[in-house]
Amino acid sequence: MLPTVPDDIVREIFIHTLPTLKSIAASHFPRPYFAKPSATTSPLLLCFVCVRWRRIAITQSRLWASLDPSCIANGQLVQHWLERSGNSIPLSFSLRPPPGGSKPHHLRILWSQIGRCRNLEISGVSLPIGVMPLSKLETLSVSLHADAPEAADWFSAALSHCTLLTRLHWDGPSIFAPWPQLTYLSLHPRSPEHLFDTLQHLANLVELHLCCPADTASFDQSPFNPCVLPNVTTFGVQSHEGLFTFVTLPALQHLVLVDCWDGVHLEDLLERSACHIESLEMQIPSDGRIHGCFDHAAIAPSLRRSQPPHTI
After folding, report:
1. What's the pLDDT tens digit per position in 8-56?
2. Which superkingdom does the taxonomy of this entry point to (predicted)?
3. Cross-strand pairs, 140
């Protein structure tokens, strides 16, 4: 059929061959798709079918707008990939250390195009000297070492002009960020003060996920009055029940619990928030703590849907 279809329509069909988030992994963070160059997946797969498909694929810049270069052994391939993406469309990069050691040349090529990024994932790589503009950034995921003050300063400066940023996953020291414009935040707070200071500025947040080490006693109980987040409809907590005590969520509808359970703290949150939970998702340890301690009707009478607890 495709031999009779005009090139413009084939180009649009090719766009729909790219893997999507749902086909890759289930994740609460709205992680964009970062293409790993492989002859078994689009877009490279399209180039091996026939001469016509190769020509169309190479000239469809949107097919080449996403890249995870960690498995590429040749920096020149990164350059070719970016050239196929053209000069104007927004890009999506995943910058992580490649297996077997770093390849700084790859990073230099990608950092030179960082101003075009709409979606960016950074983990464990060295930052460039000098702050680069990130004016097109909409989604950012960052994982830093526990002690990374220079990186925190770099991101604070870089994010100061990110007027389009609405989704942030942050695992690192405290930074200055455009918190009021965020609608999604996944945060690994380093201290109760870090968490509380951040919560004060999330006026427009709709989805919040918090994670901290389970053995961090400082999070057992908030030393502050709970922060009211009026627009949060989805709240996720991982590893530490004390995180319930930091917030009041009057609009809460969807609750996600990962590796934590405390009926008392949860009941206090729901009573304090006067919210109406509609869905509950739970992932629990294999020690069976959940059995006998959760009563849907008692904890959340408004609950309409729950995912059966499963072990992790």
Report:
1. 888 888 888 776 644 333 345 556 678 778 778 888 888 888 888 889 8
2. Eukaryota
3. 120, 168
Q: Supply φ then ψ for residue 263, to 5 degrees.
A: -60, -35
**Average pLDDT of 126-152?**
82
Greater model confidence, 272 or 295? 272
In this structure, are residues 181 and 166 in contact, taking their beta carbons and an 8 Å threshold? Answer: yes
Single-letter amino acid code for the residue at 253: Q
pLDDT tens digit sequence for 214-250: 667 777 777 889 999 999 999 999 878 888 999 999 9
Q: Average per-residue pLDDT in the chain?
A: 81
Q: Count other Cβ atoms within 10 Å, centred on residue 33.
A: 16
pLDDT at 310 over 60: no
Q: Please indicate whether residue 13 or residue 166 has the higher confidence score (pLDDT).
A: 166
Whether the Cβ atoms of residue 98 and residue 123 lie closer than 8 Å to each other: no
d(CA 12, CA 166) in angstroms, rounded, equals 27
SS3 sequence of the chain: CHHHCCHHHHHHHHHCCCCCHHHHCCCCCCCCCCCCCCCCCCCHHHHHCCHHHHHHHHHCHHHHCEECHHHCCCHHHHHHHHHHCCCCCCEEEEECCCCCCCCHHHHHHHHCCHHHEEEEEEECCCCCCCCCCCCCCCEEEEECCCCCHHHHHHHHHHHHHCCCCCEEEEECCCCCCCHHHCCEEEECCCCHHHHHHHHCCCCCCCEEEEECCCCCHHHCCCCCCCEECCCCCEEEEECCHHHHHHEECCCCCEEEEECCCCHHHHHHHHHHHCCCCCEEEEEECCCCCCCCCCCHHHHCCCCCEECCCEEC
